[in-house]
Amino acid sequence: MIEPDPSAPVSAGQAPDEGAPTDVPPAGSPAGAAEAEAGEAFASFGYRDVPRAEKAGMVREVFESVAPRYDLMNDLMSGGVHRLWKNALVDAVHPRPGERLLDVAGGTGDVAFRLLQRQGAQADVTVCDINPAMLSVGRDRAVDRGLLHGLTWATGDAEALPFPDRSFDAYTIAFGLRNVTDIDQALREARRVLRPGGRYFCLEFSKVTLAPVGRLYDTYSEHALPFFGRIVARDAESYRYLHESIRRFPPQRELAERMRAAGFERVAWRDMTFGVVALHSGWRI
Ligand code: SAM
């Protein structure tokens, strides 16, 4: 795998990156239009459109199934590169002591642990995830690492967060937004819980910007994810869903537009590994 470009983190005050992606499908592309085509009654679950009311339960089953081997699988599937992507996210957040940080869809705590360690003595990090099985693995990992202070675990839905308005200085979501039923509602919720001056960061699989890399990556993810899923996690179906959900997630420019529509300002993004992953950021002013 190719390392992310560490030279250009999305910093707090970076201007919108209008020209970054070179291979962004126009509006009306399959990825961008998936939800619109499906209509309000349906949401995408991998390549399928399922009744909206059923998606959250189906996603929950996927992550319940993968929770025990989730971290091992992440390392195997990405060749460890997910660690570099997450480090780049935390560099961009640049947490300061005393700030209140929220990591949504925080799963087994990978991003939260990094935020906590960067904040040091005055750490205040809340991990929120809809799936108790993922959080349970996360809590065990925190204990194993001696991370006992400054960390709060909360069960909650990114679309209806169990926190008051204006309660956090920064909000992160890593590889979580593509799993929610209503991305726009999750974006509005993120803005709601941020204080004015608070920052939003989304790390997510995105649209590869270099065609040959895109072809290689497609072949890899279509075949390797279910293969690893079958051999290591004994669950090819869940990993097929992960591959399909990556393909249907809005590309860089569309996600930036939807962030602006949710009320974020100074929206920017930075591609990593040729757009395999993108880091979007925005401010609640
Ligand atoms: N952020 C972690 C990481 O990068 O390792 C975990 C990412 S994992 C691919 C996606 C997580 O999103 C799962 O833990 C899943 O339970 C969670 N999730 C899915 N839908 C959610 C929702 N509506 N609200 C909150 N969390 C959700």
Structural commentary:
The protein is α/β, with parallel strands linked by helices. It has one domain (30-284): 3-Layer(aba) Sandwich (Rossmann fold). The protein is built from 10 helices and 9 strands. It has helices at residues 30-38, 52-66, 70-78, 81-93, 110-119, 132-144, 183-193, 211-231, 236-248, 252-261, and strands at 42-45, 48-51, 101-104, 125-129, 151-155, 168-174, 194-205, 265-272, 277-284. The strands form 2 sheets. Strands 5-4-3-6-7-9-8 form a 7-stranded mixed sheet, sandwiched between helices. The protein has a two-stranded antiparallel ribbon with strand order 1-2. The longest helix is centred in the last third of the chain and has 21 residues, at 211-231. It binds S-adenosylmethionine. S-adenosylmethionine is lined by residues 56, 59, 63, 104-107, 110-111, 129-131, 134, 157-159, 174-176, 179-180.
Sketch the topology as an H/E string, one letter per element: HEEHHHEHEHEEHEHHHEE
Give the overall shape: globular
Measured by DSSP, the beta-strand proportion falls in 15-25%
How does CATH name the architecture? 3-Layer(aba) Sandwich
Unreliable sequence segments: 1-38
